[in-house]
Amino acid sequence: xxxxxxxxxxxxxxxxxxxxxxxxxxxxxxxxxxxxxxxxxxxxxxxxxxxxxxxxxxxxxxxxxxxxxxxxxxxxxxxxxxxxxxxxxxxxxxxxxxxxxxxxxxxxxxxxxxxxxxxxxxxxxxxxxxxxxxxxxxxxxxxxxxxxxxxxxxxxxxxxxxxxxxxxxxxxxxxxxxxxxxxxxxxxxxxxxxxxxxxxxxxxxxxxxxxxxxxxxxxxxxxxxxxxxxxxxxxxxxxxxxxxxxxxxxxxxxxxxxxxxxxxxxxxxxxxxxxxxxxxxxxxxxxxxxxxxxxxxxxxxxxxxxxxxxxxxxxxxxxxxxxxxxxxxxxxxxxxxxxxxxxxxxxxxxxxxxxxxxxxxxxxxxxxxxxxxxxxxxxxxxxxxxxxxxxxxxxxxxxxxxxxxxxxxxxxxxxxxxxxxxxxxxxxxxxxxxxxxxxxxxxxxxxxxxxxxxxxxx
Length: 458
Known about the structure:
This protein has a 5-stranded mixed sheet with strand order 2-1-3-4-5, with helices on both faces. The protein is built from 15 helices and 5 strands. β1 (29-34), α1 (44-52) and β2 form a beta-alpha-beta unit. The chain is of the alpha/beta class. α4 (167-184) crosses α5 (198-213). The protein is 58% helix and 7% strand.
């Protein structure tokens, strides 16, 4: 895959329409463009929606209802309002993406929010803080036309932001991205570049390529993506806000993160650069100003440390995984993100169980039990009995380990109670393999109790 890139200025952009393919009979992604925060022109959202409507696979619509736009100043502490309002609009309109527009002098800043932002671990390699700048002149009047190269890049940005978990939609998204990347690779212009746009453009070109090639086993794709993001970082003196530098480091971390899973050749060599770039991102994405981005980076770092621990048996990596997940837990609370919080609690239970077992620590094992019980606040016996039983079985295993560690019959009795809770569910569900395993665990617990009683009598 070769990469070329266009260079242009806002003054010399040709007024053409991109030939981005005719609509197919496949899935359709619904895109909402919220009415811009703009005190000069009031038709930007409509003009952008009309332009994107020419793109294959998209159904676009301008959202013109009146609402408070003040949160679109991303340097304020109102990021919570932005996310909550976006999720509300996405749910109301049943859309895949909402595009926010904000006037910054003679430019329009666009940000992309999907309906799984910071709540699901999907395959959309984009942050809500990623900013895409376009000249305001291309959307300011009904007669304005977005240049074909710019529309192509914007189309790729929209596709990259989609996080629909349906396999059918993921296949179609990748098909469309392949077409976009093919056209991007052919763009080459000798026109003079406007430096102020370039780092943001390079960032989104990198996101588009990453969205297409994230699961590639060919390390040549990785080198192309890395070069694009590194070129963007070389121009960081042109970036107006340090938040955007953090986003570029975040995407470099995502790229190396993917390499640890999909590139079979030397996967362990990608762990350190993945961790390093995620850590660099954390320096710019403050947990106080941009907590969701910070927390999600923590979550991804925890996953990396776990994988590194499994491959190297480095117990410090396991400790680091717990620390990062604890940081994520502070951001993704039970009230705001109940499902994701429950997922974090389950992972904490697993990590703390392993750490407690390796260090023979009673306190850490108790923390593991507490995390699993927190998970059961989300996965209850009533709403998901089999999953609840599996968690109960895990708690029983920890209790059994603690009982043996301390020669405490009362703790082993607690383990037996958990095992029988799970056995009852498994028997009702007819899960024979689970029944066989847990009966074996129950037998071991009774045998251990007998040994403890015998030793007390002596």
